[in-house]
Amino acid sequence: MKAWALLVLAGVSCVSLAGEQPVANEREQANVEHYQYGMELDVARVIKSAEAPNTCSVEPVQMVYEDHQGQRHTLEYLVSGTGCSGG
Questions:
Q1: All residues at 6 or more sequence positions from 33 whose CB lies less than 8 Å from its CB, including other chains
Q2: How many domains does the structure of the chain reveal?
Q3: Which of 10, 38, 42, 70 is the most exposed place for a label (fewest CB within 10 A)?
């Protein structure tokens, strides 16, 4: 009986921890800056940058970078996809 109770408690803990993950992602999404032509950026180090999608259209991608003060930023910008063929 104790083993069963421990198993149930462990399962509930995992589910509750799994439920907390999207909250962090929502917080990151709320802080996304949208690039506009001519914006001055303070990029000291690129942490993560998405590749252009394999589509034949203009798509948004994101880059995570650190500025010279050590603050992280997420920037969303538009790129042309790489899936166009035949010019």
A1: 73, 74, 75, 76
A2: 2
A3: 38
Q: Which residues contact 61 (CB under 8 A, 6 or more apart)?
A: 49, 50, 51, 52, 53, 76, 77, 78, 79
One domain, residues 50 and 71:
yes
Residue 45, CA atoms < 13 Å, CB-side half-sphere? 7
**pLDDT tens for each residue of 5-62:** 445 455 544 444 444 444 445 555 568 999 999 999 999 999 999 999 999 999 999 9
Q: How far is CA 86 from CA 4, 17, 49, 82, 83, in A?
A: 63, 49, 27, 12, 10
Q: Which domain holds residue 55?
A: 32-87
Bridge partners (DSSP) listed for residue 80: 58
